[in-house]
Design goal:
Layout lengths: L4 E5 L3 H13 L3 E5 L2 H10 L4 E4 L8 H11 L5 E5 L4 H10 L3 E4 L4 H20 L1 E4 L2 E4 L4 E4 L2 E2 L4 H12 L5 E2 H8 L9 H13 L6 E6 L3 E6 L1
Parallel strand pairs: 1-2, 1-3, 3-4, 4-5
Antiparallel strand pairs: 6-7, 7-8, 8-9, 10-12, 11-12
Helix pairs in contact: 6-8
Amino acid sequence: MAMFKILVVEDDADLNRTVSSFLRQNGYEVTSCLLANDAYNAMYNNLFDLIISDIMMPQIDGFEFAETVRKINATVPIIFMTARDDFNSKQRGFNAGIDDYMVKPVDLQELLLRISAVLRRANIAQSKKITVGSFTMDEDARSAMNGDEEIPLTAREFNLLYKLLSYPKKTFTRVQLMDEFWDADTNATPRAVDVYITKLREKLSSCADFEIVTVHGLGYKAVVK
């Protein structure tokens, strides 16, 4: 398997070394930069799979860095790792196009979990395919295959299932799913989601690799077996 390449941009040299060596020990190829300008230079010569950046850095701060990266590369995932815990900083970060936000001191094991989650989502977004065991969904072809058997899904069924499987174990409320997959002017109630989930479960009855679980009082989540 090809190694994922991570760019770490952090002006605290000790923390930069700690994070970079920890990521290398866990199988990532890491380029470390102390300043945003060094990071730009590194990006000219390399394609990175993920960027981890501080906010408070001399010359160019993390917000400006993230905005510039987004102009060059719309899809590379960016995780902010910062001492700033205020909502405004988080809002500015997400508005600049980052994918995740961690407050220092950062737990390195949690950083690993977040990196793999962000990379998995980025990978799904790029390939537009989801594979769970022998079940495959292809967003471009709008097809769902369980082994060799194609499962006929309506557009809304496909979108609902694709969403649930993109974020396994994450609970989506009925209202969240309604907001995303039903038009605002619809007369449908959140119970319409239940009807769709019931149909999906019937169509997926032969699929043993995951199940759509009801989270009582909340909504639904996909659980991979």
